[in-house]
Amino acid sequence: MTTEKYVFGTDLLTATVTAHGAELISLRDPTGRELMWNGGPPWPRHSPVLFPIVGRLPAHEITLNDQPLHLPQHGFARDCTFHWLDRTAQGCTLELTENAATLTGFPERFRLRMTYRVEENRLTVSYELHNPDSSAVLHASLGAHPAFIWPLREDVPKTAHQLIFSENEPAPIRRIDDKGVLPEAFPTPVQGKNLPLTEELFVADAIIMPELNSHSVSYITPQKDGLHITWNGFRDLGLWMKPGADFLCIEPWHGYAAPGDFSGDFSRKPGLLHLEAGESWNANWSVETI
């Protein structure tokens, strides 16, 4: 594991990324206020990259290309060392490709590039997933998992915060247990565009919003200050925190955990990308202070 870090940004926003997991570990405003979770107990991460799965697979055997598939929750990218391709005053690019260790549990070739750029008060995180194989299809999911501080200010109660989506979100949500996505849907807690935030929302674990209408959400206090998060290329959204902890994860995804009864070949798992030989997929998310 490398601890190599890179700091970049502007007078309005400063970011820190580490080669381990290509993870965003710090985001600070001009006053020095930290906007990201500190990575301490009860969750040791900040903003892990979820690849080649989002969530977990069932405990029973899953295969890929007639080989047993062995993937930890959220995949392996978050625990791999990425290689620096570019570092400038405003950003950086890192890359991960298959190696002997990844091929043992995930027998597919891939190239994943992550680019971070700060412009004024906005950080944009871009993903390029490429299938370099000359004949095989790459089956995978990819997701973001940024954990922002909650409360945003010490003088504002957690329950005074809310999420405001760009569109109405009436569709049912999905929930998970220790086996995977539950078969039934649940009524959304979003009221039109607004989701008042309480820890009780997350007693039953993450809120999964598959194929939602919005492409952005504002995470704000009653004074209307906070963060505005946008995404492109991702079709699903996860919201998560551990009750008692001081963070809120706002997670654009392409894919989600497998149903608990899923079995057989991984390529048939719901929510996957299927990249033909030589094909690439691009997505991004951004966060700006408001």
UniProtKB/TrEMBL annotation:
Family matches, as InterPro entries: Aldose_1/G6P_1-epimerase (IPR008183), Gal_mutarotase_sf_dom (IPR011013), GH-type_carb-bd (IPR014718), LacX (IPR037481)
Pfam families found in the cross-reference section: Aldose_epim
Molecular function terms from GO: carbohydrate binding; isomerase activity
Domain of life of the native organism: Bacteria
Gene3D superfamilies, sorted: 2.70.98.10
UniProt-listed GO biological process terms: carbohydrate metabolic process
The name this protein goes by in its record: Aldose 1-epimerase
